[in-house]
Structures are given as C-alpha cells and as structure tokens.
Amino acid sequence: MTLIKHMIFDFNIHLPCNLTQDTQGKLSDEAQLDVAALGQCYATHRPLLQQQVSSGNFMLFNQDLPFGAEPLDIWVRQVQQDFPAAAFTQLLDFRRSAIEPALDRLRAAGVQGVKFHSYVQKIADTDIPMAVQAARAAAERGLFICIDASYGTTWMYEHDNLKLAAAVIREVDNVPVIILHSGGARRWEAMLLALESPNVYLETSFTLPYYEGSSIETDLAFIYRKIGIARVLYASDFPYVGLDDARACMQRFLQRHEFSADEQASMLGQNAQRMMASLSAR
Q: Is 88 left (phi over 0), alpha (psi -120 to 50) or beta?
C-alpha cells in the first residue's frame, strides 16, 4: 500500500522558518513567530505541505499570541484557504493572568485546541493544578487539549508529562484530550490512561520513526488495537521529522503489523476529521 495525499490528516505540524537549525534552534524560532512571521513561514512550507497532506493541525508555539492584540484570525483564514479542514493548536501559557479572555480570543480566531508541553514550559509537579485549571477553562469553551508526551533528556523526572496528562484527564471529559507521541517510551502508561477515558486519543508522531524496529514499535501496534483504532491519530511532528520520512515509516508500520485498509484510513485521516467534526457540532 502506498499512502496517498488525500488520506492524510497530519495532526502535528510546526512552522519554524529556519530548518537548518538543530531541534533547540527550531523550537526557539517558532516560539518567537508573530502573526506576520507565521505568514512568511507558512508561505515557505506551503508547497511541500500541499504536496504531502490533505490537511493538518498546526502548532502555534509563541505563547504571547493569545494575550496580544495581533489579528491571529487573518493568518488562520490564510491557511484555511489551502486546507479548509485545518485545525490550530496554541501552546498555552497557563501561568499568566487573564487566561479566560485569552482563550476567548483564541476561539474567536478559529483556534480549536490548546497544548501543554512539560519540557518547553518547565512544568513541575507544583504547576500541575494551575495547568489543569487552564485546561478546564479551555474545555469549557470547546477547545481540545494536547499534552506533549515525549520522554527523554535529563529533565524527564522533573517534568512528568504523563502525570500532567492524568491530572488533566481526571478533570476534562467533555472534549478530546490527545496524548502526543503516544507517550514515547512510556507508551504503556499512555495506553492505560486511554483505556480508562474514552475521550483520550494517542497520536503517532516522532515515536514511530524514533523507535522503528524496536519492541516499542511492536508494542504500539498492540496498544493502538487495544484502545481502539478510532482513537489513533497519524502525525509527523514536521519539521522535527520530515514529512517524507514520517509517511514512509507509517507505511512500513501499517504493512508490517497487517492493519486493514479500513484501519489505515481511520488512523491516517478519518479519525481526525470525525474528531474535529464532533467539536464543530457543539
């Protein structure tokens, strides 16, 4: 089977401009993009995205955007001209005051989700209650919740992303909560969270290519079937993983573990489309 563009909704797309930088450089780049720079960076990546995916979820990492006066909706509409079904997720600075007006601005601009990133935001155990409060306020406005669940670096014990995920999931059951990267090396814990809570989804980015050929890959095939294919979302984590590389890795994974054509179509795009349609219907 060859993955074809019209099947693919990529749930994790970033837009740093300078792709020659290392990971930290790219993160720093996208964390500083104002609306004008977002437009420029999107224009840079637009031809490749149009070639590779049918739509996607675009990650916004500048935490100032929801709290400023810049017209984010203009950029959102620009992307939606190319990808009408596109989604947008904002990394949310939960420590600031005026969280609720900021969430209202995001919603009015067409942003559908917020994200928490334990490593980037340095979320310690003492910060979790405040993050949960912000997640609850987002959910009250119909915004889905993304929680970065990559696992690694010497800070992995200080910033426990799945502890954060568990705390959010206990309080938020009315919108999707997406565990990004399927928990990485902690994939079994991510599975247990998803099994208890039907609004929890797992997303495939980074982990599949990083652990390809290992027992973790085999585990993920079991885990995706265990929680139900309808709650698995394909994603690349572009540009931290190239679109071609992510797509080829997913194709090998689907073939190696003998997922049916219907299961493949669900993971590659239909699940994301159904999830977004359920939010729009609220």
A: beta
